[in-house]
Amino acid sequence: MATIKDIAQLANVSNATVSRVLNYDQTLSVGDETRQRIFEAAEQLNYTKSPKKNNPQHGRIAIVEWYTAKEELEDLYYLSIRLGVETKLQELGYEVTRFFQNDPFNTLSDALGVIVIGKYSPAQIQRLKKLNPNLVFVDMNTLDYEISCIMTDFKSPIKSVLDHFIAQKITKIGMLTGQESTADQVQLGVDPRLTHFETYLTTKNLYHPEWILTGDFTPESGYQLTMQLLKEHAASLPEALFIANDAMAVGTLRALHESGIQVPEQLSLISFNDTSICQYTFPTLSSVKVYTDQMGQAAAELLIKQLNADQVIPQVITIGTTLTLRNSSK
Questions:
Q1: Does the residue 325 lie in any domain?
Q2: Average pLDDT value for the chain
Q3: Looking at the DSSP assignment, which residues form a beta bridge with residue 288?
Q4: Maximum CA extent, the chain
Q5: Using CA atoms in the order 50, 66, 217, 326, what is the torsion angle rounded to 10 degrees?
Q6: Which superkingdom is the protein from (predicted)?
Q7: pLDDT tops 70 at residue 241
Q8: Which residues contact 327 (CB under 8 A, 6 or more apart)?
Q9: Quick one: what percent of the chain has pLDDT higher than 90?
Q10: What single-letter DSSP state applies at residue 186?
Q11: Number of structural domains, the chain?
Q12: Residue range(s) defining the domain that contains residue 26
């Protein structure tokens, strides 16, 4: 595990600034460029292997991120995937061009291929296909569009989280999740984590819809939803919360700290994604480890394979997960 000092040295900032940025301290005034350096340093230092940058030899590949650069800093899951893609492409000797949601996409047609990260509407997918037919998506199942994609597993890790709570004699379990929309304002479906959460607890007669709250996948939303839960259910709080991403969980920790609720003694928390911030919160966050760097690397390798193939057969590659237990859960 990289230390605060390691991250500070790589990002060229103070230890205190790193700590406050990683904990989404709302009182800290720091520019987005500095925040991005810190988050990227934290993710890179926690990769399983260090990036090797070779001189570009094979041409240019584009990466399209469904967030703006600013939004990406609120959800390190997608930043981590992007870094995994970039690292692998650079190792393989390709030049990388990065596009965020609010960038013009006109030059995508000049790239050998495109790795598309995030969620997109049917209209956006068709537009991307017209600009460049050599596509691989990450974190969206695009097989219906005859496009290959890299996904993470949701069903098995949700069962692992809930089985862990139940093994600790915790049966009053709530969940905080988010609702997403594409950049062109098409609302996406229900979070699959919530679907699996509801299905599994219903089979055990332990599902409590009153403890399910939906906002968005940001620290501020996690904070507000937790405050709402504490206010509306003060007399009947759950014993544990499963939180759909780490950023929301950071907000939850802040709300519980301000409200004098001890974690995990009074309320256990497990989040999802296990981005680098989980190791620097207090208490450290238990989280489902999504192998975002491997997702990014798999996307890069699959695109290169398709570019060199005589026939492209669309496929879905699903990357597994691991439950990482730290101090926020019993």
A1: no
A2: 92
A3: 272, 323
A4: 64
A5: -20
A6: Bacteria
A7: yes
A8: 264, 283, 284, 286
A9: 77
A10: P
A11: 2
A12: 4-152+291-320
Pair 141, 316: CB distance under 8 Å: yes
Considering the domain architecture, whether residues 86 and 177 belong to the same structural domain is answered as: no
Q: For the CA atoms of 151, 154, 156, 158, what is the dihedral angle to 10 degrees?
A: 160
- Give this prediction's pTM: 0.89
Angle at CA of residue 275, ends 269 and 277, nearest 5°: 75
- Only one residue has tokens 């970039």, namely 86
Find where tokens 């393989």 sit: 92
Does 329 map to a domain? no
Same domain? 191 vs 97: no
Distances (CA, A) of 114 to 56, 68, 295: 16, 17, 15
DSSP state of 285: P
Banded pLDDT at 56 (limits 50, 70, 90): low
Q: Is 56 helix (H, G, I), strand (E, B) or coil?
A: coil
140 phi and psi, to 5 degrees? Answer: -150, 130
Question: Which has more confidence, 330 or 62?
Answer: 62
CA dist., res. 317 & res. 296, Å (int): 12
Name all contacts of 33-36 with Cβ < 8 Å and 24+ positions apart: 35/73, 36/69, 36/72, 36/73
Query: Tokens standing for 171?
Result: 């049966």
In whole angstroms, what is the distance from residue 138 CA to residue 273 CA? 15
For residue 98, list its beta bridge partners. Answer: 63
> Is 188 found in the same domain as 226?
yes
Amino acid letter, residue 132: N
Among all chains, which residue has been given the structure tokens 């207090």? 282
Dihedral angle of Cα 178, 33, 294, 189, to the nearest 10 degrees: 20
CATH number, domain at 276? 3.40.50.2300
Can you spell out the DSSP letters for 257-284?
Answer: HHTT--TTTT-EEEEEE--GGGGTSSSP
